[in-house]
What we know:
The complex is a heterotrimer.
Chain A: H1 5-9, E1 13-17, H2 21-24, H3 26-39, E2 42-46, E3 59-61, H4 68-81, H5 87-93, E4 94-95, H6 97-104, H7 109-116, H8 120-132, E5 136-140, H9 142-145, H10 150-163, E6 174-176, H11 183-188, E7 195-196, E8 200-201, H12 205-215, H13 227-236, E9 241-245, H14 249-252, H15 256-264, E10 268-273, E11 285-288, E12 297-300, E13 305-309, H16 322-332, H17 342-352, E14 369-370, E15 394-395, E16 414-419, H18 435-440, E17 445-449, H19 450-456, E18 463-467, E19 472-480, E20 487-491, E21 504-507, E22 514-515, E23 519-525
Chain B: E1 4-9, E2 12-17, H1 22-28, E3 52-55, E4 60-63, E5 74-76, H2 80-96, H3 111-119, E6 142-144, H4 154-162, E7 168-171, E8 178-181, H5 197-201, E9 207-209, E10 222-227, E11 236-242, E12 245-250, H6 265-269, E13 284-287, E14 290-293, H7 296-314, E15 319-322, H8 329-343, E16 348-349
Parallel strand pairs in B: 1-5, 15-16
Antiparallel strand pairs in B: 1-2, 3-4, 3-5, 6-9, 7-8, 10-11, 11-12, 13-14
Chain C: H1 3-13, H2 23-33, H3 40-50, H4 54-63, E1 75-80, H5 83-87, H6 90-101, E2 114-119, E3 131-133, E4 136-138, H7 143-154, E5 166-169, H8 186-191, H9 196-202, H10 206-216, H11 228-233, E6 243-249, H12 259-265, H13 267-281, E7 283-290, H14 295-310, E8 318-323, H15 333-340, E9 364-368, H16 369-381, H17 383-387, E10 390-391, E11 394-395, E12 397-404, E13 410-415, E14 418-419, H18 420-426, E15 434-438, E16 447-448, H19 449-452, E17 456-457, H20 459-464, E18 473-478, H21 483-497, H22 503-520, H23 526-539, H24 547-561, H25 563-572
Parallel strand pairs in C: 1-2, 5-13, 6-7, 6-9, 7-8, 12-18
Antiparallel strand pairs in C: 1-3, 3-4, 10-11, 12-13, 14-17, 15-16, 15-18
Helix pairs in contact in C: 1-2, 2-3, 3-4, 9-13, 9-16, 10-13, 12-13, 13-16, 21-22, 21-24, 22-23, 22-24, 23-24, 24-25
Amino acid sequence: MTNSIEEIEFTDAILAIGTNTTENHPVIGSGVKRAVRQHGAKLIVIDPRKIGLVDYADIWLRPKPGTNVAVLNGLMNSIIDERLYAKEYVANRTEGFETMKETVAKYTPDHVEDITGVPADDLRIAARIYAEANSASILYAMGITQHSHGTDAVKSCANLSMLCGNVGVEGGGVNPLRGQNNVQGACDMGALPNVLPAYQPIANDDARTKFEKSWGVSLPAKPGLTIMEIMNAAHDGDLKGLYIMGENPMVSDPDLTHVEASLKNLDILVVQDIFLNETGQLADVVLPSACFAEKNGTFSNTERRVQRIRKAVDAPGEAKADWQIISELATKMNYAMSYSSAKEIMDEINGLAPSYAGITYERIEEEGIQWPCPSTDHPGTRYLHKGKFSRGLGLFSAIDYRPSDELPDNEYPFILTTGRVLYHFHTATMTRRSEGLNERYPESLAEINSRDAEKLKIKEGDFITVTSRRGSLKVKASVVDTPPEGTIFMNFHFSEAAVNLLTNPALDPIGKIPEYKVCAVKIEAA
Amino acid sequence: MGNKISLTIDGKKIEASSGQTILEIAKENGIHIPTLCYYPNTKPAGACRVCVVEIGTAGKLEASCCTPVSPGMVVQTNTEKVMNARRMVAELLWSSGNHNCLQCEKNGDCELQDLIYELGIEKPRFEIDLPGYEIEDTNSMIQRDLNKCILCGRCIRVCNEIQVHEVLDFSMRGSHTKVSPAFDADYIDSECVFCGACVDACPVGALTFKQARFKGRPWEMKKVRTTCPYCGVGCQMDLNVSDGKVVKVTTNMDYGKPNHGMLCSKGRFGMNFIDNSDRLKTPLIRMDGELKAASWEEAYGYIAEKFASIKEKDGPDSIAGLSSARCTNEENYLFQKFMRAVIGTNNIDHCARL
Amino acid sequence: MNEETEERVSELANLYPSRKSALMPALEIAQRKNNNFLSNEDIKEVAKIVGVPNSRAFGVTTYYTMYNTKPVGKYHLQVDTNIPGFLSGAYEIVEHLKKKLGIEVGGTTGDGLFTLSSVEDLGSCGTCPVVQVNDTYYENLTIEKVDELVESLKSGKMPEPDTFSNFGTECNILLKNRGISDATDITVYKKGGGYEALKKTFKMQPSEIVDMVKGSMIRGRGGAGFPAGVKWGFLPKDNSRPVYLICNADEGEPGTFKDRQIMQYDPHLMIEGIAISAYAIGAEKAFIYIRGEFRWIADILENAIRQAKKDGQLNHVDIVVHRGAGSYVCGEETALIESIEGKRGNPRVKPPFPANVGLYGSPTIVNNVETLSCVPFIVEKGVQEFKKIGTEGNFGPKLYGVSGHVNKPGVYEYPLGTSLKVILETAGGVKGNLKAVIVGGLSVPILKADEIGDLKMDYDSCAKAGTMLGSGGIMVINDTMSIPELALRTINFYAHECCGQCVPGREGSKTIKVLLGKLTSGEGTIENIDTILDTCDTIKGLTLCPTGDAFAMPIEAMVAKFRGEFEDLVKRG
């Protein structure tokens, strides 16, 4: 997030696109609702599904799945057309406006209506709400990123925000809501093929030298493979060994048939986890790790706030904290790692990652600190790009709408879109072991629009077969009006109805993110 | 908050900001006024009348939680009139419900119990009249015993004003008033999303965490502050540990950002996995196609040897690592350090995109 | 619910600044559509249309007594058994109906034709006993008339109600049109000089009208007797929010049935008063909050408003009639405001006061029907003429409702400060031997016969006599009535009506009810009597709203002044 969670409650307008906030980030969802109910904020919801926030929205735009970029361009077209944009801000703080303007000129509200199904007038109303607010916050999540054009949509959000002068201001910003407790931290710490901790490029000699000096080794300069490329390399036999810590690609990755073949093709698969999950069952070595309640450390939340976790109970059996396991394995492999506590590791991070330099255990004992925090007397950073963008001028990108990779046709007439539900998390290894959550949501349900259900003669609770070009599964139907006609929604929590048998592994060319939100399926009564 | 004004509380001259309530300024100055329905960050209800104080010489009683200070105000917090009123309120509450502490989860952490004790009430002057509600026992997360409910409305305010789930409200009226989801449904049959905020808000034993029932008394519970392991919000919460086990999750508004004492159902009730019997307890190595228990030494040896031989034969880029958005910063840091410094490859990624 | 209903609800919603305010009207519509019953499905539908959470809609539905969450018979017979009814034989009628229909109170006959209920004060104190059948009041009932009524209903016919009631006026201001037929019609009203005051108003500055009302020193006729002009003066000076005027026509204090005389027989008088007052305080929207049971009176008002609008009298203000749904507490101004906002009628904590933060958070003035109906006279005839009526500090005419043990119960208009004796004489004199009088509605301390002396009926004299003028609802009690029984019936009313928000209100009223129940059934102790007195004393001034005082004061007075009767019950038991 460029801005902070608590700013959302006090901003003038909120544009929530591709985020089912009340289910996936419920505490932020409540903040949005408070903003609306108690502080008079305007709320624009853009989502194909009738999600919980729709009841609180001033206006709800319901685009066809996969058409976010067209909607965002349409909003900008309307804002520019009605001259509601922040002219001074655009002139002084950004570049690339004219090129962007030329591109969005094609996206008149009427044209956008043709592409997305959003009524042109609604688009105009939403554009006015967003543009006329003193400060307006854009919230987004996987609903815009898990597409083959995910990066485009993210850039379009940035365009829209800059167009109205909302980047670098209190209550504004472009705010991705992170789905996992420490995605932010994993990225910050350089668990990425192209960057070292704090996003220092691996290809940058100075950065590499700094780490080489500290670590006492020489480092490869060539960026590594991304997760999808890793799977492909394993599939092709180019990759022999894989070490997986705390992940379950056998449920979470697209095209599970392909993943299974890839993992089976390895010489060695090491899986380190708290449960023997679907991926662990294919492993050659499984290492038992401690869960969050059994160790010390830090997580970085979606607003860049670094916060402590603390050991409350002992790990079961011989299980150890992941950092201990890594240290011991490294030592075994003749690279001595002799950390005696998580804090010692953070001390090392402080010295190597500039944005974390001032974030010490002592300082975050009571309240976490938001990076960048370059020194121990720095208070941390509530919102980014204040006064000036990190890169100098904010850069507009000219982005055209591209349709999703796989669209419905006669054979596969429905769009399948996927996501989470309130009571479960990701591959549900944790939540399905919680009695109460299971009581509330015991089995996978495929949400189907009541009109579609009527046509297909499917009733609430009937089993249906959902088939894509990649696979087929049986699942119970829930007949509701949440998804639009022609679209079904499934969650990916239940391995017995693993929706990623169906999803399309088409990747976004830059973000390498799979297109989980749109693929074509057919539905039959089972 | 506006101008500085001065007033007198219990004979003590005090500076306050206009807009503050009497209760707020008293608290700031270490003057104790008991409360029941008061709950931070919600609109003061002025309903329990426990926090009444006497204002001016006319002897007017006002609820300090919702009475703003005014210049020259003379406040007395413990006159005979005030104590009489508090005592009667406490006795009325005592006699209107089943306030039996013997098997109550809140024994030792109950605001009504504290109040009665503070006021030194031996027994209520009124006959005890049990409401006779059935204890709601239809879900495994929250137990509702309305026989203990004092109708302070804190659960309703937190549900509507803070969480904005808008599930709870008062229904009926007069002494038949009760707190309920729509249509007086049980929680499990209502629109409740089980965030558990109502339980944290309950000053008495009407709402309790069912899985923690009989698992430890409040004073035996060790509260360990930590960060929720689910989504990216990073909610601060307390793991309540008793007998080496996490028995419930509570929150604390004082922890402030980012969640100000709020959680969702996952953070609140998604912790059973911690001591689940399926947890991995030893390393496993595949032998003859089956995963078999092994020692750490064996496991490390196996991996080290295998990785070394691949590295030698096919080069370090034939090995890759997937780190985890679920693990700590320190672990992610160490994992990428391991891949880069020990294995010698940049083939490292995690599931940020999934 | 069908689309037509949804449309009607939306139309209604448009009358209010907030859609949520349509919750109560919408529930009423839904209930009518479903044979006078609201199912959970109905409530859910309404909640959805109006845009409130189900829990809130359910909370509101179960708060107000006129919403039936259980099915009722085709004819819902609701007998008013409150004090005036009690004094004039309502319980005999209940017993008779129980026997005749073969059901208990709360029950429905097997054929689904009749449901029998005992209800609280219906505002028919002068025409008791009264039975409300669905929406219609049948007043001045006797056992014989009840039989006729039931027989007629069995044959499927709602008989024409008897509308006779006594009245009299010495001032000729508030009841001047009471005896004129068709006075509800605007042409008749205008023929008598109606809307002249409004015409005069428009030639003056709003502040001049405010000054006149201040100068008249008129005190609020709802019960508290607070000067209306002073109340208007509390409106904030630099204010950008809309200002609202609310006419409080909730008339629910037992013993009170005066406002309906104006609304039913001279609605334009009140509307003219509202129109002038709205102009004075700058309100472009005014609400009349009328108790739900007065359905036909609400229709009269709506009709009159339509006429006035058509006649061009209301170009400056939009008047909306909002019907309550069965709640005494909604007569309290902040509870009333909550109710208009579509909520449970729970009083708000003060401050802030409505004049600053009222309806929808805006400055709001709430005045009683009678108060506003005096305004045209003040404006037209001038402050001096108004102050010629009444006594020093208690100026103007007052409607006194006399009920209970008198020969001609009714509403009589006299100058403030008129002797109680004179009023009682006009009301045909006391039936039997006078034992006690409650002079200002049920919530004021009772006076023993020997305390009355030459009591002048004005605010200050009543206060001096240890009671209050209140609403001017005079209930006369002769020596056939047991005071402990009267006290029990009184606390039953307050316990039933208490909103339930605050502890002393909710549990205090219930506890006193239990104690009085024990005493009257002969199971009480002397200690119980002291506990009641002690509890009442502590409750006074302690509750969130004035309802605590409203029951603590009369109960305390009844027990203290007639302690012997209570002690006798202990001895006998």
